[in-house]
Task: inverse folding
């Protein structure tokens, strides 16, 4: 059968962000998918080098609007890692609270969009209806619906107002009840079940081979969670990691719905602690000494990783960001090939891809379409060769002569 | 034009193009059509193609890769089309002001713009207010 090519994007009504998929099909079967990204590249890592450490936190917050506390969380972890800064206990609870609120609204967003993708708009509207009170809570606690600006090096920027506790508890109770109801409704619906069960299976071996992380890996039975494995603030609360075994789209949805309920439990632990734990919310950090730091945090989509190198000034020399979607998106190579075209979109969306997070690097092409990185390497090698000729008559260095013998 | 303006006020079809934003304005736009704000009660609806749209919403700093596409989208839209820049990024670039991948700023250097809605991200109420003010200018 002849192959047919279906372009999807970059400005497509289904895709909230601009990205381009080149789907090759044989009949109805997907045989290959090529992806083109780069529409969202803004050059954070370069801008970060011109900003102070505190300003960098606000910059990385704007890497992605949905994980807008995960990146600052990992960033402050990396900066604190350079000097081994300890943060006050109340600050830890506030960080956990904001992180879990964000996880709830991000997962609800995915549940809604997944419903939209399979033509189940009722689910979309319901999920986003329950997301709204969470955003309003965030606004009450932090002052903004999405970009919270709470993280600082050594603690948090704003204290939690204890008088908000009676307002937050009923919302969490409501959400928990509705999520149990939603999980039941999804389980009872034969259409949803036949639409999602056994679709786009990612096996455990593939999840490990493609370095999947977050809910994508956990749905495939790969027990990995930074909140439990390498906690930086989460040691103050109990975290139950949710793992399912099948690796299909249905299990990915189940993991996310159960994680929302688990996040509600974690927030309740924090609220209980706020009444007892008082005191400072920030340890003032005056200087960052030269060195390297690594920060990890379990974002709603998986592990986000920040690397910061400091030379003792108030600016990072190098700031490297690796978002979870970077390793999650390529899993479509394992899960999407060979399935019908109608199932391809929900499988592509099942990893909760975030292209704003992913697009961190830029390839430079010249006018003839050649990649400049390779020619830069060539230039560099040629220069070494040229210099070598000036030093050694036969063009062979003493080092090479040793290895020849 | 007056008949057109009279009709368009009651049913505005909106196309949303994300030109390298941080995603936040986009999810706030989607928030508008969900039960929390429900702008469909005003006849405002998100459509799938720019050829059906009366209003083009653009978010984000326009990167070099997206800029030709945004121009193309504007050319494809049936005229008159109203362009609304959502978020501070379209006005001054916000925190990405020094970005090397910023094609033109503000947005009206690339395509003509009718209204800007500032904020990072603008609240959904602010977006509704912006659209209502834009419609107020129609005679």
Result:
């Amino acid at each position: 059968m002849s192959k047919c090519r279906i372009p999807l994007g970059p400005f497509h009504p289904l895709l909230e962000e601009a990205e381009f998929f080149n789907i090759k099909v044989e009949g109805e079967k997907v045989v290959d998918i090529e992806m083109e990204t780069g529409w969202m590249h803004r050059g954070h890592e370069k801008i970060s080098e011109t900003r102070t450490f505190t300003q960098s936190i606000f910059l990385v917050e704007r890497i992605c609007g949905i994980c807008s506390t995960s990146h600052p969380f990992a960033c402050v972890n990396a900066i604190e890692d350079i000097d081994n800064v300890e943060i006050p206990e109340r600050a830890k609870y506030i960080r956990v609270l904001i992180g879990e609120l964000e996880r709830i609204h991000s997962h609800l967003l995915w549940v809604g969009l997944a419903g939209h993708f399979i033509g189940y708009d009722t689910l979309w509207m319901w999920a986003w209806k329950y997301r709204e009170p969470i955003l309003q809570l965030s606004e009450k606690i932090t002052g903004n619906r999405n970009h919270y600006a709470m993280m600082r090096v050594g603690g948090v920027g704003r204290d939690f107002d204890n008088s908000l506790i009676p307002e937050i508890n009923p919302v969490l109770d409501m959400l928990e009840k509705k999520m149990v109801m939603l999980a039941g409704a999804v389980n009872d619906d034969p259409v949803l079940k036949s639409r999602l069960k056994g679709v786009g299976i990612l096996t455990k071996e593939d999840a490990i081979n493609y370095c999947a992380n977050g809910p994508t890996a956990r749905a495939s039975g790969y027990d990995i969670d930074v909140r439990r494995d390498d906690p930086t603030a989460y040691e103050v609360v109990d975290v139950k990691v949710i793992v399912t075994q099948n690796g299909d789209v249905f299990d990915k949805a189940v993991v996310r719905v159960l994680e929302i309920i688990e996040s509600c439990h974690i927030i309740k632990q924090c609220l209980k602690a706020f009444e007892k734990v008082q005191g400072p919310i920030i340890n003032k950090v005056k200087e960052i000494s030269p060195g390297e730091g690594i920060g990890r945090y379990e974002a709603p989509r998986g592990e986000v990783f920040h690397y910061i190198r400091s030379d003792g000034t108030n600016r990072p020399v190098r700031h490297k960001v690796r978002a979870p979607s970077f390793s999650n998106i390529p899993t479509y190579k394992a899960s999407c090939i060979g399935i019908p075209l109608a199932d391809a979109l929900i499988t592509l969306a099942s990893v909760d891809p975030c292209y704003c997070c992913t697009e961190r690097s830029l390839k430079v092409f010249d006018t003839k379409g050649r990649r400049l990185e390779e020619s830069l390497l060539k230039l560099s090698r040629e220069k070494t060769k040229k210099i070598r000729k000036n030093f050694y008559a036969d063009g062979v260095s003493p080092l090479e002569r040793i290895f020849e013998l | 034009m007056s008949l057109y303006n009279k009709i368009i006020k009651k049913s505005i079809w909106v196309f949303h193009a994300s030109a390298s934003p941080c995603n936040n304005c986009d999810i706030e736009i989607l928030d508008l059509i969900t039960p929390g704000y429900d702008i469909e009660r005003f006849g405002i609806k998100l459509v799938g193609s720019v050829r059906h749209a009366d209003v083009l919403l653009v978010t984000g700093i326009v990167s070099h890769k997206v800029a030709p596409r945004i121009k193309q989208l504007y050319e494809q839209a049936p005229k008159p089309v109203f362009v609304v820049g959502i978020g501070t990024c379209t006005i001054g670039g916000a925190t990405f002001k020094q970005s090397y991948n910023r094609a033109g700023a503000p947005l009206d250097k690339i395509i003509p713009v009718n209204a800007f809605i500032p904020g990072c991200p603008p609240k959904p109420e602010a977006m509704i207010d912006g659209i209502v003010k834009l419609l107020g200018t129609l005679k």
About this structure: The mean pLDDT of chain B is 87. Chain B is about 30% helix and 15% strand.
